[in-house]
Structure formats: C-alpha cells, structure tokens
Design brief:
95 residues, 26% helix, three-stranded antiparallel sheet, two-stranded antiparallel ribbon
Length: 95
C-alpha cells in the first residue's frame, strides 16, 4: 500500500517478475498479472487480513506526500517524522 495511492482500496503484490494491484474488498486483480497459484495465495491472505488492510487504507487516506521533500504530511500540515521516504531521497544538504 502506498500513502498517496488512488481508490479503490488496493495493495500491490509481487511474485517473481509479476506484479498486480489487488482489490482489498474482493481480492480481484485490478491491474497487472499473477500466476494462478500466487493469486490464490494472495486471496487467502486478503481474507485473513482484510480488516487490517481496510484500516490501513483509511489511515493512509488522511496523509499525502510532500512533493518537494518526499515526506508524509497530514491534512493539518503536521510532519511528525521529517525523514524523506526512500522513493524520493535526496543528497544531504551541505552546511
């Protein structure tokens, strides 16, 4: 799950060279592909963790990523952990 991702609630699953976006509510593949056996395992996992996935999606819907800093911020502007996310790290500033 990514904090700045689009609806519907989903997560990204990887298996070897395959990747898919999986719907939290149904376990259906929204985009991408997974081998049949991997998709079956993902569906079993979704059934066990659906409540947690839905809670996480609701939590992440409250935050965004600051495009300049790459940090997670809440709608009220709070930035409690100003460490840049790994996807947008930049070189340290010189002093």
């Amino acid at each position: 799950m990514f904090c700045d991702d689009h609806p519907p609630p989903h997560f990204h699953a990887r298996y070897g060279e395959h990747e898919a976006q999986v719907d939290v509510a149904t376990g259906d593949i929204l985009n991408g592909t997974l081998p049949r056996r991997a998709h079956a395992l993902v569906n079993e996992w979704v059934e066990l963790h659906r409540d947690e996935l839905e809670t996480n999606w609701q939590f992440f819907a409250q935050v965004s990523v600051d495009p300049e800093l790459g940090t997670i911020v809440w709608s009220n502007g709070a930035d409690l952990a100003p460490t840049p996310s790994t996807s947008k790290q930049s070189a340290p500033r010189s002093r």
